[in-house]
């Protein structure tokens, strides 16, 4: 009779691998060695898995997929370039093109209409399933954002920061610089660099998420709940903004707390149009 | 306090340690040409339909193009793209598939006596069996069979305990074996439907 644990271990071994040598599977290795019934089952599962793995990776790829993918990438790049870049240049070129490219314009209109219809259909289909994003998933997205920061893209002029995504008044510290990045839930996310000279990284990410984030506190948590990957992070909501304070390096908890505690006065304030919700911050 | 420190320490340059070393730009179009087939097949196994797989593959490359700075080693592009794809798949908030009662328990009689060859196994039948599984079980199978990840790597990737991965893997594989062993399955002649009683599994209370 074969134990369930043994069966699970057998199923955990990849076909053709040396997984059996893992220390965690030593019990299985011993059983395979001593018990002919276990050995027989192990070999049958290995052979079966090898065949399934081979079939698993085979599926017919639709014709023209590569071209479609390249076209969609090119379309998005065009959108990004054409976005709000230089309206003056558009105006100079448009009258010349308008007459000559009526057909192209019609195609473009049809494409935009189709895309809009597709977006509406997709929104309709997805709407009933739009559960709130969990805090953990939101933090994972924020970490992706921190990882995407570009060393040469920092703006050192605080007055130029996005007034819709200001520094939280609950945070003690003067930003050295800020940078706009795109995250999963807000394409205009702002990250403030609160790193003090000589200290390891401290960053504040500010988003106006386009999804609901479940159960967030309305002030920075004193004990940051996220301490993985060499980082400590706390998440909270202020009005329609969600903040993520992230600390890297040694002594993370103390440095995190020092950024929150006993704030007498902020040395730097958001430049303009400060949302009224910040008037209720922890100051 | 920190405010005083920061006021007195104006930085010369701002370059966080984790963004300091960036590789040369990686061409996303080249990634499409090189990996779109594998990505599509991976997406197909996860979604179970050609249309959804196409959409997911497209979404993956669009997301990859926006986050291409995260790819520091071009040699790991395939694995990174799979990770992006899984993330896109999970974010799509798929409909919950109820776990079929009783169909995920291990059945030793569904393990073939003689192994079929890969080409003998019906890919559509595999897909039909996958479609019956909840996402979390299907993901584990795709990581195991498609990416050839060890159960420890799967646990790390999905951030779930090792025991959970082992249990899901075993139950999902049992489901797959049972479905492939049915009347129209590839392994029909290979199935040992007359296993002795000693082949029965003993489950812990």
Structural description of this entry:
Chain A is α+β, with helices and mostly antiparallel strands. Chain A is built from 8 helices and 7 strands; from the N terminus they run E-H-H-H-H-H-H-H-E-E-E-E-E-E-H. In chain A, strand 5 and strand 6 form a beta hairpin. The longest helix of chain A is centred in the middle third of the chain and has 25 residues, at 102-126. In chain A, 32% of the residues are buried. With 205 residues, chain B is mainly α. Helix content of chain B is 52%, strand content 1%. Residues 1-23, 95-102 and 184-205 of chain B have low confidence and may be disordered.
Features:
heterodimer; A: 283 residues; alpha+beta; six-stranded antiparallel β-sheet; 8 helices; 7 strands; 41% helix; extended; disordered C terminus; B: 205 residues; mainly alpha; 52% helix; 1% strand
Low-confidence stretches of chain B: 1-23, 95-102, 184-205
Which sequence of SSEs, written as H and E, runs from N to C of chain A? EHHHHHHHEEEEEEH
> What proportion strand of chain A?
5-15%
Strand content of chain B: under 5%
Biggest interface reads: A-B, 82 and 88 residues
Q: Quick recap of the structure?
A:
Chain A is an alpha+beta fold and 283 residues long. Chain A has 8 helices and 7 strands; from the N terminus they run βαααααααββββββα. Chain A has helices at 4-12, 26-34, 36-56, 65-82, 87-100, 102-126, 135-147, 252-258; strands spanning 2-3, 177-183, 186-193, 202-207, 226-228, 231-238, 241-248.
Topology readout:
The complex is a heterodimer of chains A (283) and B (205).
Chain A lengths: L1 E2 H9 L13 H9 L1 H21 L8 H18 L4 H14 L1 H25 L8 H13 L29 E7 L2 E8 L8 E6 L18 E3 L2 E8 L2 E8 L3 H7 L25
Antiparallel strand pairs in A: 2-3, 3-4, 4-7, 5-6, 6-7
Helix pairs in contact in A: 1-3, 2-3
Chain B lengths: L1 H7 L19 H20 L2 H17 L10 H15 L31 H9 L3 H12 L4 H8 L3 H19 L20 E2 L3
Helix pairs in contact in B: 2-3, 2-4, 3-4, 5-8, 6-8, 7-8
């Amino acid at each position: 009779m074969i134990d369930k644990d043994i069966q699970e271990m057998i199923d955990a071994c990849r076909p053709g691998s040396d997984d059996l040598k893992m220390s965690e599977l030593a019990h299985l290795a011993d059983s395979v060695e001593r018990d002919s019934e276990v050995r027989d089952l192990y070999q049958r599962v290995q052979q079966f898995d090898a065949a399934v793995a081979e079939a698993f990776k085979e599926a017919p790829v639709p014709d023209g997929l590569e071209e479609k993918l390249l076209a969609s990438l090119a379309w998005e790049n065009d959108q990004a370039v054409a976005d709000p870049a230089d309206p003056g240049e558009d105006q100079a070129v448009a009258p010349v093109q308008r007459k000559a490219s009526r057909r192209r314009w019609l195609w473009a209109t049809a494409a935009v209409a189709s895309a809009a219809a597709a977006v509406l259909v997709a929104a309709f289909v997805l709407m009933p399933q739009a559960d709130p994003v969990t805090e953990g998933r939101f933090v994972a997205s924020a970490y992706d954002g921190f990882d995407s920061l570009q060393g040469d893209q920092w703006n050192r002029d605080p007055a130029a920061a996005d007034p819709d995504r200001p520094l939280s008044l609950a945070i003690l510290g003067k930003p050295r610089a800020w940078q706009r990045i795109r995250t999963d839930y807000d394409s205009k996310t702002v990250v403030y660099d609160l790193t003090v000279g000589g200290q390891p990284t401290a960053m504040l990410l500010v988003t106006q998420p386009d999804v609901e984030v479940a159960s967030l506190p309305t002030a920075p948590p004193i004990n940051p709940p996220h301490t993985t990957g060499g980082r400590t992070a706390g998440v909270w909501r202020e009005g329609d903004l969600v903040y993520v304070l992230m600390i890297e390096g040694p002594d993370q908890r103390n440095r995190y707390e020092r950024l929150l505690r006993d704030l007498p006065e902020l040395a730097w304030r958001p430049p303009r149009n400060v949302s009224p919700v910040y008037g209720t911050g922890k100051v | 306090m920190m405010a005083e420190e920061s006021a007195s320490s104006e930085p010369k340059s701002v370059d966080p340690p984790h963004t300091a070393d960036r590789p040369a730009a990686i061409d996303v179009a080249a990634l499409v040409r090189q990996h779109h087939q594998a990505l599509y097949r991976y997406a197909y196994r996860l979604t179970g339909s050609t249309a959804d797989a196409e959409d997911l593959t497209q979404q993956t490359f669009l997301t990859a193009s926006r986050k291409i700075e995260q790819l520091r080693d071009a040699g790991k592009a395939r694995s990174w793209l799979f990770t992006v794809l899984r993330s896109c798949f999970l974010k799509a908030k798929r409909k919950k598939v109820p776990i079929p009662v009783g169909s995920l328990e291990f059945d030793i009689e569904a393990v073939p006596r003689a192994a079929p060859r890969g080409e003998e196994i019906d890919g559509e039948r595999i897909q039909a069996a996958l479609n019956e599984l909840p996402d979390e079980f299907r993901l584990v199978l795709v990581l195991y069979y498609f990416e050839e990840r060890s159960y420890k790597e799967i646990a790390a990737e999905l951030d779930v305990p090792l025991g959970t991965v082992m249990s899901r893997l075993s139950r999902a594989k049992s489901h797959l074996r049972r479905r492939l062993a049915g009347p129209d399955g590839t392994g029909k002649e290979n199935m040992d439907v007359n296993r002795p009683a000693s082949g029965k599994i003993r489950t812990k209370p």
